[in-house]
Amino acid sequence: MMGRTSLALFAIGVIGAFAAAACAGPPPEFAVVASAGVEGDVPIDVELRQVGPIEQGARPYELVITSLEQPGIWIEDVRWTFSEVVGEEHAIATAGSGCGAEWFPEEQQVFHACTEEYRILETRPGAPLREPIRLYEVVGDMTMTAGTYTFTQRIRWWVIDGDEPFTSRDEADLNDAAITLTFEITER
Length: 188
What we know:
Elements: H1 4-24, E1 30-39, E2 44-50, E3 58-67, E4 73-76, E5 82-86, E6 90-96, E7 99-104, E8 109-114, E9 120-123, E10 129-136, E11 138-139, E12 142-143, E13 147-159, E14 175-187
Antiparallel strand pairs: 1-14, 2-3, 3-10, 4-9, 4-13, 5-6, 6-10, 7-8, 11-12, 13-14
């Protein structure tokens, strides 16, 4: 049973917590302009667009990759996982298909966990590849902050050989390029 002194201290603590929350105000809202680009000689077109509302602290995006080469290209598996810690309270993180992001305060960094599946991604003219990417507004105790962030993903690709499904590749046929993801984040 709680005594009068304990009850009074409990009430002061609860009132103090509510007062602190009221003074802190709501978390900031952000406007995000997202874009994608290509570096190197790769016959693709890329577009990055938000595809839904914020869910569980993350904005859902879709990276649309369309081959400009007939009959198309294959791309080795990529996961689109990036992070940047900004000061002591802020982090920017992305995660793609099969991945997530989590803040580890002891190491002061974002860790990405991904499934072990290995995929060969395929895109053909008129049949774009759609890769999900999440931009996290909150990762653990870290929150997103305003700024411009560009992440570069190296890719290895090769031209599809006819209409046959993928079976294997010859290392001599592989090409290197990069896809950049840029997020321009401003506070509203």
